[in-house]
Design a protein that fits this description.
The chain is α/β, with parallel strands linked by helices. The protein is built from nine helices and eight strands. The protein has helices at residues 11-22, 70-76, 134-143, 153-183, 192-201, 207-210, 214-217, 220-229, 233-249; strands spanning 2-7, 26-32, 48-49, 60-63, 83-86, 101-107, 124-128, 148-150. Strands 3-2-1-4-5-6-7-8 form an eight-stranded mixed sheet, sandwiched between helices. The model has no long low-confidence stretch (mean pLDDT 97). The structure holds NADP nicotinamide-adenine-dinucleotide phosphate.
Length: 253
Amino acid sequence: MITVVLLGAGNVATHLYKAFKASNAVTIVQWYNRNYTAISSYANEVDITDDLSKLKEADLYILAISDDSISKVSKDLPFESRLVAHTSGSVSIHDLDKKNQRAVFYPVQTFSKEAELDFSETPICIEVTEKQNLQFMKNLVQALGCTPYRITTEQRQTLHLSAVFVNNFTNQLYRIAHEISDAKSINFDILKPLILETAKKVQNMSPYMAQTGPAKRNDKKTIRRHLKQLENEEHKAIYELLTASIKKTHGQR
Ligand SMILES: NC(=O)c1ccc[n+]([C@@H]2O[C@H](COP(=O)([O-])OP(=O)(O)OC[C@H]3O[C@@H](n4cnc5c(N)ncnc54)[C@H](OP(=O)(O)O)[C@@H]3O)[C@@H](O)[C@H]2O)c1
């Protein structure tokens, strides 16, 4: 049985808590958050605390906390030589205080507390500073039904950068589309099957092959009309930038 102390109570920690709870191979020894009320409703399921000095012994301490607090909290941990991991895509493993053994447990997914998801579908990127902890981290990932990927800090940071393109930027484009359609009283639901199909297509096809639309076809007339329809200068600039990028990729001028 793998024992874990979970630190943090945000989007990632909440999903991790549920995934660990559901695993027969993992026990959550304790759940820490600096703000007690965020976890108080779990008091009848797990030992909870808002006091770092009261942390219990476990095989692993997972810091699922904001990127800019990882370094300080890892320094404040009241023990040494234990295994401590963070869950960030962009923070270096070396930001964890070296008084403990260090690891990264980066789940490549977008987590919101309110949005349910099947955690076992999440790829987990792992990193360790001590080689002897590698198998342990792989075992933990597999105990959740997930696939482990061993990567370097540089690869993880590049993966995080790629994730910003496929997730945050794409989502911002959804928001703009929502605003544009709302302005003309068009129900955003009409676009949802298109959103799903676009994401589904790249599961079996390269993004290059999956591209369609006026920029790829170099349909100048439609592009001109779209630019005329756009009232917001920022939306226009984004349309022009992405159109130029698609044209360049597909050899159009
Ligand atoms: N959200 C995602 O989709 C996602 C995906 C992969 C990886 N990650 C990574 O996972 C980590 C957590 O992200 P999240 O989205 O769960 O963040 P979040 O929802 O904003 O939650 C942040 C947590 O950190 C705690 N915290 C912040 N500053 C702290 C401090 N100085 N001392 C102690 N605790 C502190 C907060 O405590 P309070 O409740 O007291 O404010 C809260 O529990 C980050 O490293 C993030 O990069 C996020």
